[in-house]
């Protein structure tokens, strides 16, 4: 394009010059012809014009030839420059691609990974010496290097002032010199000691602090100054190395934490685990301690992608209960706690208990963090204890009945009249026999509930008459403590599926407890209310209340508040445990609210009879 423009300009000058010469020599020839009036004059000027025209053409032709040659050289120079830039860009892209591949690959030897990156960069920059340094105060450590054999060693130490990197850190930017001997740094100690002519380097930052430098150098002078592309490459490499070291530090910290957790978990009985339930229903154990071997005879690797091997070992009678408890914990994000059996392929069965806390993830999955431990021995002891209590209770009932009858006859003076001291003694004996009978009856009830042998007659019936009967039957008991019962019902038309006798047993326990722990001349309120599709029965006292330490154990067997005041009230410690079992069997819930010094409220929630069930009862 430029050559075409030059050619057009030359043609224009040629024609324009020819016209000017023609006009000039024509005018001069005409002036001379008017003076001499001879043809020789015209011939002379015509010849002069031709000679001038010839000289003009020769001059312009030579100028055009020189111009074209210069333009061709300029174009060749531009093409060579573009070719060099293209090659540099290709090398740059190739180097970046190689570094990206190195970064993507995991090499447990982090030094070797960085060494490969330095070698790639050194080849791109055509500088044979590449160093990643660690700088602390004035100590310069060769952390990783790539250089000709025998020239350097990793972990070599130098004084920072003896290296060009001191200039790099001071510059706080990419520092590059292609001919050190001709620069202002020719007197630097590094040049005097190592005669490195070419150098380019940048600071490496890790977690916001200066870690060291990455530098490339050569004893040979670089032909051309470092390009902006080369500077950008070194700057990018320094940032990549910094982020790589940060990731290594984070990974090493994770490994250290994992090793510490593994050591701790290995000392714990049972297994520590993470259980993940995905939205599609699939489940796995992302983490398991080696204790999984003692519980399921499995390894952590066997359950890392799927929890099926674990579920396959849960006892068939318990699997549904375990799955339901997991689904409930996931839906409500509440604590998962479950006792169940594990059955091995050889038929051996063990009992385990699990406890874990769920955590909702951003993708909709739920992860539980918890532990599972073997409680087989505890279950055996509990079974032996229950069997012992059951046996003792049954064996004591018959003789105790006979003793009670005999003492009753003596106390009633049926056989003979007793002196006053003997009457008091028989009265005391009879009272203690009744306490023993109450304890044995409670033990037998608990035994039947645990064994599933207690019979229930559950049918739809109105609740108010059942509550009124319980209040009426316990009036005399309340009078012993100078406590009165007051019943208040919002409606008399609440029906539920209950066993009236068992519900009265529960209410009797709640009313007797309320009376025992209420101050004299106080009132215990009993209220019947409707709460959505449930009936709510409340027993409210104004007693001493229940301590926070005892709240979690109040429905446990043989559980009593540990205070002298509570101990003086007596009781077997089984009443609330039996009540909870009875209410649960009637598909209800029992709970309480309490505040120390202000009293307690125990409540029972029972599902109301549906309209269809009510119509069937009415018919």
TrEMBL record:
This is histidine kinase. It is an enzyme of class 2 (transferase). Residues 336-387 form the PAC domain. PANTHER family: HYBRID SIGNAL TRANSDUCTION HISTIDINE KINASE C, TWO-COMPONENT HISTIDINE KINASE. InterPro entries: GAF, GAF-like_dom_sf, HATPase_C_sf, HATPase_dom, His_kinase_dom, HisK_dim/P_dom, HisK_dim/P_sf, PAC. Keywords: Coiled coil, Membrane, Phosphoprotein, Transmembrane, Transmembrane helix. It comes from the Bacteria. SUPFAM superfamilies: ATPase domain of HSP90 chaperone/DNA topoisomerase II/histidine kinase (SSF55874), GAF domain-like (SSF55781), Homodimeric domain of signal transducing histidine kinase (SSF47384), PYP-like sensor domain (PAS domain) (SSF55785). It catalyses: ATP + protein L-histidine = ADP + protein N-phospho-L-histidine. CDD domains: HisKA (cd00082), PAS (cd00130).
